[in-house]
Amino acid sequence: MDHGKIRPVSDAIRSGIVVVDGTDVVRELLENSIDSGASYVTISVAFEHGCLDIEVVDNGSGIGPPDFAAMGRRHWTSKNLEESKFGFRGESLHAIMGLCTRTEIVSGREGCAWKMHYIGTTARENPRQCAFDGASGTLVHVFDVFGRLPVRKRQLAAEWREMTAKLSRTVFSVLVARPGVTVTLERNGVRVFSVTNQGGVAGIVGLLEELYGLRDAVEPIKASFEDVCVTGVLGPDVGKKCQFLFLNGRLLENRSLQRTISLQLGARSGLYVFDIRTPLEESDLLQSPSKKVFSPVLFDKIKAVLEEVARRWIDRDRAVRLQKKARPSLGLSRFFSPASDVVLDGPTIGRSHVVAQVESKFVLVRIDGVLVALDQHACDERVRVEALYRQWTASTHTVAVCIEITVDAGEIERFARFAAELSRWGIKYRQENGVVVVHEILALVADKDAVFLQTGVLQFLDDLASKRKRTCASSVDWWVATTQMPEMYHETIRSQACREAIRFGKTLDKDSQRRLVADLALCRDPLHCAHGRPTCVPLIRWLDK
Question: Which residues are in the MutL C-terminal dimerisation domain (predicted)?
Fold first, then answer.
């Protein structure tokens, strides 16, 4: 085997893993500048005649002559290993050189500067002194990115159209945890932006405004649990493009954590930027050449803190919106006595006497001298939802399905740990090549789409792991069993009860009214519909003369 011929091919393949596109070239060079202690970095990108050129200039500490001669060698680095924030694999510059046609590097330190010229990864000259504008710093100019991979180069025209947006995200990700650094981007000689992280919440808000044009109010967030601390901002929904997690300054991309936040925020899934700080773990630093973190060591603690942060924000946001909502009131007529001290329950409703139906919406009943209005839709919805709960908490009727769920290692472990709970609720699965296939599920939800079922199963596992749902118990009481039921079943049952319940506008005869009141009186929770709204409201005391 001719290793001399194989090595260039091997290097090119390896470089394609470290550097996927032009944005990765900028990110790697920008991270090197930050690690050199730079406070000002200028990025210039140019695309002309099918060739992409990239230049990054910084005012960092520069590189001295002894290290300069080794520039670009694979697994060689001049970084201070104790101070580097983005790692020290010694791969990025070698990978970039291996994918471009030509590279020039100029670096200055203590008033002296040296220059090197490379074709691919091969140096064409020894370091030579040259002029340099500044006391210290480094300039890296990469010519014809992917010029050594013609097939890959042909895709650059399409990537160029989206490069500004991608670079905005890259700059935000690098700067968000690094105050005091300014980055300027020029595209074909025209300045696109110049941003500085001022530090703290104000710094994050400034970056969001400059890079994404977001001027909506955001709320500062701070929470901690043991050795996990989370700071950042959270705001209204502006699209998922502004949802970021960072772990010790590195971009954290974990689908389970992102899903946890989305489930907590619900329909108001909003903007969030969370900087998570934990003790440094070697595993977190070495997971990817891109320096991203995918599976943090302290996953469970981080998830618990993020759940609490999202829950607090939703509770506060809901309270503010309720305070702002005006509720008109006509007051109480002087001809009637208030009935606000009346206590209603099932037995009390069972003693009621039907008076009349009003506007085909409400049933008026008299209970111990008090006139009470019953919402006919809410009352029938409560009767039906409890009947459905009795049916499906005892049902073992399952239907064959085929729902594939791509899972990570943590989710696979949860499937195994909570297999009994899944089986209790008719969820039967098998594991195939890193994919969980649900092949049976309770007939209640068998007609739902795959996305609903995938999300529902994973949410059930999350609820079990965080103890929001109880594990299997021997109780035969349907009321207790509902506390163990997957949330997707609750949602389906509530929706079905609402659809089938008596609607506003339907006229009920006296027998139907009495039957509705009698059925409501037998319910475990006769005072609320399936969605928590009141079924009945005391109006006035009925004073006989």
Answer: 354-508
Provide the token pair at 77. 């680095």
Q: Is the pLDDT of residue 209 over 90?
A: no
C-alpha torsion angle, residues 507, 513, 516, 520 (rounded to 10): 120
Given 3-state DSSP classes, what are the helix, strand and coil percentages for the chain, each rounded to the nearest 5?
Answer: 40, 25, 35
**3-class SS of residue 427:** coil
- Between strands 40-48 and 182-187, the pairing is parallel
Q: Are residues 85 and 186 in the same domain?
A: yes
Q: Alpha-carbon distance 114 to 488, whole Å?
A: 65
Q: Which amino acid is at 339?
A: A
Of the candidates 23, 19, 60, 8, the one whose C-alpha atom is nearest the C-alpha of residue 38 is 60
The answer to the question of residue 202 being in a domain is no
Residue of higher predicted confidence among 336 and 176: 176
- Give the whole-angstrom CA distance, residue 508 versus residue 375: 13
> 189 and 236 share a domain?
no
Domain of 254 in residue numbering reads as: 216-322
Q: Is residue 305 part of a domain?
A: yes
Q: When comparing pLDDT for 462 and 423, which is higher?
A: 423
536 beta partners: 374
CA angle 433/439/440 to nearest 5° reads: 150
The number of domains in the chain is 3
Distance CA 246, CA 275 (A): 5
Last-in-domain residue among 322, 355, 375:
322
How many CB atoms are closer than 10 A to CB 289? 18
Alpha-carbon distance of 338 to 212, in angstroms, equals 55
Helix (H, G, I), strand (E, B) or coil at 104: strand
CB 375 within 8 A of CB 536: yes
Residues 346 and 311 in one domain: no
Residue from 233, 229, 235, 311 nearest 276 by CA: 229
Is 60 exceeded by the pLDDT of residue 403? yes
Domain closes at, from 322, 356, 373: 322
Residue range 68-93: mean pLDDT, rounded: 61
Residue 170 CA to residue 188 CA, distance in Å, equals 19
Within a domain: residue 210? no
- What CATH number should be reported for the domain holding residue 286? 3.30.230.10
The answer to whether position 315 is within a domain reads yes
Helix (H) or strand (E) holding 47: strand 40-48
Residues 151 and 292 in one domain: no
User: d(Cα 383, Cα 389) in Å, to the nearest integer?
Assistant: 10
3-state secondary structure 323-372: HHCCCCCCCCCCCCCECCCCCCCHHHHHCCEEEEEECCCEEEEEECCEEE
Tell me, yes or no, whether 294 and 392 share the same domain: no
Query: Looking at residue 46, which CATH number applies to its domain?
Result: 3.30.565.10
Backbone angles phi, psi at 80, to 5 degrees: -80, 110
pTM above 0.90, yes or no: no
